[in-house]
């Protein structure tokens, strides 16, 4: 039997917040490279969400992960693929403020 003495934290902060940062990074990089805003494509956004979560998990064991989503969209009927590498350092940069938010309750 365990007795809980206290709890602390932000109940509104979780893994989806970290995934969202990766998604935004992918959308922005894709827009810069191809001039297409994937945020307007619901199907593409679902694929990005799944890829972001997978990348986040992979980065707990490696320093770089490849995000490869073939046929993410099309330009003039021609398929366009998303292929980018995300490093752990970039992930930490993208989520630095979220990490700080999780550390606050721990320090109390």
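^ Assign residues to that structure.
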């Amino acid at each position: 039997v365990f007795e809980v003495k206290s709890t602390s934290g932000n109940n509104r902060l979780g893994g989806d917040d970290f995934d969202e940062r990766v998604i935004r990074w992918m959308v922005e990089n894709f827009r810069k490279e191809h001039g297409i805003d994937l945020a307007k494509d619901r199907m593409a956004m679902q694929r990005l969400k799944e890829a972001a979560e997978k990348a986040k998990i992979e980065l707990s064991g490696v320093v770089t992960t490849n995000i490869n989503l073939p046929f993410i969209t099309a330009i003039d009927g021609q398929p366009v693929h998303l292929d980018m590498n995300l490093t752990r350092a970039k992930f930490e940069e993208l989520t630095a403020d979220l990490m700080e938010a999780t550390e606050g309750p721990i320090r109390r």
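The chain has a mean pLDDT of 89.
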